[in-house]
Amino acid sequence: MDRKQLTFMCSYPNFIPLSAETIRRIDRGLEPIPFEALYGHYFDRVIEADAKSVLKRSVKRYLESIGDR
Question: Are 28 and 43 in contact (CB under 8 A)?
Answer without folding.
Answer: no
